[in-house]
């Protein structure tokens, strides 16, 4: 009887150890599944954070354009007036140098109605009205941004004022707009729970602003397993395509730190 009791106690002890081991394995498996699920959630959050930052930077670029367009048109008008004045002065100088010829009787010419050039804002308004039909599912802001994009792309191709638009736009990007776009991207990352360490903004990749940022993922630990594990999960995302920036030389693929 004593031997049987000892044997039973040993078997009960083995069963208890087996059950404890099985429970530990199940807990570890459960924690592993939880950590994988958590990592997937953080991955989606990291993508969303980068996307919001890219959208914010793109929106800031469009917000800078109305004031810039007014300033550009004033400078272009002044440039054209100066060019015309210089041409008239040159022609007057030539007339003074040439010998006088008998004046011919002047024949009155029919009045010619001058065709007034439309401003960029007027062209944008017209384009937005045209787009409102084919972009019926888009917001008014998205429609106007598309109109701005198309009209500016055409104006850049014209090269008026010896390429004044390209020159002024590149200078604004270099010394003003990029700063504002970076600030908007940073604020969007922080507002969405992301981290600025290692975050970067690239302009312009195929005409798009690309932001790469991270979110911290921490493992759920048990009895020393997984405890204290933390990683920064980096993901990148692109904003909408901006066609007119593709007309600007030297701006493809520039990368800026957002730290």
From TrEMBL:
<keyword id="KW-1133">Transmembrane helix</keyword>
<dbReference type="InterPro" id="IPR028087">
    <property type="entry name" value="Tad_N"/>
</dbReference>
<feature type="transmembrane region" description="Helical">
    <location>
        <begin position="15"/>
        <end position="42"/>
    </location>
</feature>
<feature type="compositionally biased region" description="Basic and acidic residues">
    <location>
        <begin position="84"/>
        <end position="96"/>
    </location>
</feature>
<feature type="domain" description="Putative Flp pilus-assembly TadG-like N-terminal">
    <location>
        <begin position="13"/>
        <end position="57"/>
    </location>
</feature>
<feature type="region of interest" description="Disordered">
    <location>
        <begin position="84"/>
        <end position="120"/>
    </location>
</feature>
<keyword id="KW-0472">Membrane</keyword>
<dbReference type="Pfam" id="PF13400">
    <property type="entry name" value="Tad"/>
</dbReference>
<feature type="compositionally biased region" description="Acidic residues">
    <location>
        <begin position="97"/>
        <end position="107"/>
    </location>
</feature>
<protein>
    <submittedName>
        <fullName>Pilus assembly protein TadG-related protein</fullName>
    </submittedName>
</protein>
<keyword id="KW-0812">Transmembrane</keyword>
């Amino acid at each position: 009887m004593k031997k049987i009791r000892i044997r039973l106690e040993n078997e009960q002890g083995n069963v208890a150890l087996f059950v404890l081991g099985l429970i530990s394995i199940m807990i570890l498996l459960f924690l592993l599944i939880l950590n994988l699920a958590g990592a997937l959630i953080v991955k989606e959050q990291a993508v969303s954070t980068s996307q919001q930052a890219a959208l914010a930077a793109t929106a800031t670029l469009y917000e800078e354009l109305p004031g810039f367009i007014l300033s550009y048109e004033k400078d272009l008008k002044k440039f054209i007036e100066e060019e015309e004045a210089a041409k008239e002065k040159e022609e007057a100088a030539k007339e003074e140098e040439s010998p006088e010829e008998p004046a011919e009787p002047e024949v009155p010419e029919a009045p010619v109605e001058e065709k007034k050039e439309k401003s960029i804002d007027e062209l944008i308004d017209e384009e937005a009205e045209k787009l409102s039909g084919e972009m019926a599912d888009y917001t008014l802001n998205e429609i106007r941004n598309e109109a701005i994009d198309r009209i500016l792309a055409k104006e850049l191709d014209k090269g008026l004022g010896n390429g004044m638009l390209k020159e002024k736009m590149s200078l604004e990007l270099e010394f003003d707009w990029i700063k504002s776009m970076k600030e908007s991207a940073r604020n969007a990352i922080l507002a969405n729970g992301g981290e600025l360490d290692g975050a970067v903004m690239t302009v312009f990749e195929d005409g798009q602003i690309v932001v790469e940022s991270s979110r911290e993922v921490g493992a759920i630990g048990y009895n020393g397993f997984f405890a204290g594990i933390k990683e920064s999960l980096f993901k990148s995302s692109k904003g909408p395509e901006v066609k007119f920036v593709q007309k600007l030389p030297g701006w493809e693929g520039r990368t800026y730190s957002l730290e």
